[in-house]
Specification:
Distance between the termini: 73 Å
Radius of gyration: 28 Å
Helix content: 55-70%
Organism: Paralcaligenes ureilyticus
Structural class: mainly alpha
Order of helices and strands: HHHHHHHH
Protein name: Type I restriction enzyme R subunit
Length: about 150
């Protein structure tokens, strides 16, 4: 019995090319899809359809994330979002609140821009703040918060 097993091991070693493993190349051997990358790509495509190519993907995504963050703080809207279908949510207060938030964001951005552009001291302070943020960027692109010591 031991001799037979040793003979089989020797045969396998002799014929390694014949019995070698083949690399996985059939269907189902690819890398798993990254669901988050796919979701982000779909969002960026939808934003590009809305805003065109004149505005960069990062700026579009930043704007959409800002609106989503603001709407996420609205308890009434989030209660609807979390308990109803998208079709039902679109018949509730959600569309109007999005419109209000976009207008508020536009107004808030204009107010902040005027504070920066209309006052030399504020402009300098804001410039230094942005410099601190940029100085805190790592090679991976992550940013330090404005409260970090740089």
């Amino acid at each position: 019995m031991v001799a037979k097993r040793a003979e089989q091991v020797l045969k396998l070693k002799e014929n390694t090319e014949e019995y070698g493993l083949k690399p996985g190349s059939d269907v189902g051997t690819g890398k798993p899809h990254d669901a988050e990358k796919k979701r982000l790509s779909e969002i960026i495509d939808a934003l590009s359809d809305l805003f065109g190519v004149e505005i960069g993907d990062d700026d579009q995504l930043h704007f959409a994330n800002g609106v989503a963050a603001r709407i996420g703080r609205d308890e009434e809207v989030m209660a609807q979002v979390n308990s109803h279908s998208p079709a039902q949510v679109m018949h509730g207060v959600f569309p109007k609140r999005i419109e209000d938030i976009v207008l508020d964001a536009m107004t808030d951005d204009a107010k902040m821009a005027m504070e920066i552009l209309g006052n030399e001291g504020n402009g300098r302070d804001f410039t230094l703040l942005i410099l601190r943020l940029l100085a805190g960027c790592g090679k991976d692109g992550t940013q330090a918060s404005i409260t970090d010591n740089v």
